[in-house]
Amino acid sequence: MRILFKNGFVIDGTGQPGFRGDVLVDGERIAAVGALNGVQADETVDCTGLTVAPGFIDAHSHNDFFYDYDDAEKYYKPFVRQGITTQVTGNCGFSPFGVAADSKFKDKVGGGLFYAKKPGSFGEFVERAEGKLFVNMVPLVGHGTTRISISGYNPAPLTAAEIAEEMKLVDEAMENGAFGGSFGFMYEPGIYAKRDELVEFAKRIAKYDGILTVHPRACSKVALGYPLISKPHIELALDEVVEIMKASGVRTEYSHLIFVGETSWKSMEPMLAKFHKLNGEGCRIAYDNYSFTYGASVITVVLPPWYMALPKEERKKPFNMFKLKLMTNVTKKLLGIDFCDFIVAYISADPAHKKYEGKTVSECAREEGLSDFDMYIKLVDLSNGQGRLYLGKYYNDEIINRLMTDDLSVFMTDAWVEAAGTQNGAAYQGFPYFLKRAKDNNIPLESVIHKMTGKTADRFGIKDRGVLKEGGYADVTVFDYDGIEVDPSVPDFTPGGIKHVYVNGTAAVKDGVYVTQHAGRIVLRK
Ligand SMILES: [Zn+2]
Predict the structure, then answer these.
(1) In this structure, is residue 522 part of a structural domain?
(2) Which residue of 23, 96, 170, 247 has the fewest CB atoms within a 10 Å radius of its CB?
(3) How many A from CA of 215 to the centre of ligand 1?
(4) pLDDT tens-digit readout, 421-439
């Protein structure tokens, strides 16, 4: 089937200036780009007044966990709907593969955040996913998963023999086409891994010239597990990433660069300076960022581990409550964040708890006549510590603009569709929101598209995607730049202005209407 995208403003994804022209798709590939007069096609898509770009690439996703769910489509539809055709998956140490056939810990894969239906090898994952995908996936193997396969959530250091076993799991993934690996230093069991194990993992990824994405140990000025008197913890955490990169020589992607809490915002310029200095010295390290000022978190985010470890009856004792209140206040102050920045996303399946969703903890407190602190503890208890929040103050608008125009950034969502509760806006509007910000702030559209497509493909080593060129895969997103519409205050808002989306030459959105397809595939590193 030949499809002609006619008379659009073509932005090819390389960062070069756009031009008026046409794009011809033949089957799953792009056949020609330019002024294509007199070309015959089976179908012509009139793109007058519209921008024709490569399908967007989401540089940081967790969508490798949902593809084999019975209701899989709902986990992908909102991403397709925003123009995303490819997602880099397996981040923050989590992947549904990298698991030994005889592992005793298969049920632990996903770290409590995600659920893998059939954890196994990379080869099995590729086979299972065939024909089931709504978008293309660029898979990374999660270190957390390989460690779970060996020793579950056991905090003990791995022995040399165990590390060797772990490396076999990495080899299996990399030899069969994974693009790299990921660390999650804030999650179990990645949080426990010692330097020798981490460097070994990084070296193994480097051996295949893969990329290593890292969820750092701290994303704020203060974080648990660091000495209080020191430089900002977010900067110490970057030092650790750099040290592993230098010890292993691995290409490194600092995942989701955020600065949680106002007191952390001062770290932006020193950290950007450091990234640029390292690149000047020949290191290959860069980062990705969001378009939203908030992100998903767990409800226990500001609770110290000692409190969570207490038996329930102990928690309510006045002394423990007093100590907790004091510590929570200090943490909030140090972070520059407060209960009015905590948006309740989900408490439990109990219908009586639905009324809290979408409100800040402070708003809930006012409605119930409680103090903010008491309301917060009540919500923690109601959810059994399993609730979810959206945490504000990751950025302000100026910071996002600054990151959007920095050479080393590419764009991502780090969002997934939740089975219940308030959704994460980035899952529905993350990329259109970047377009909106570009328009409102006069950031050149070509550079913004580049960071959603060709630059991301380059960074991760994805061949023949991310650029509109003859021979490339026909992932195409057509949008009305003037008509881009988002509403950050309504998380699951369907963005306006995304007109047509094609995945490997198959329509996924047509005239703004979502179309069911299974044209996505696992992209393999060659
Ligand atoms: Zn992460």
Answers:
(1) no
(2) 247
(3) 5
(4) 999 999 999 999 999 999 9
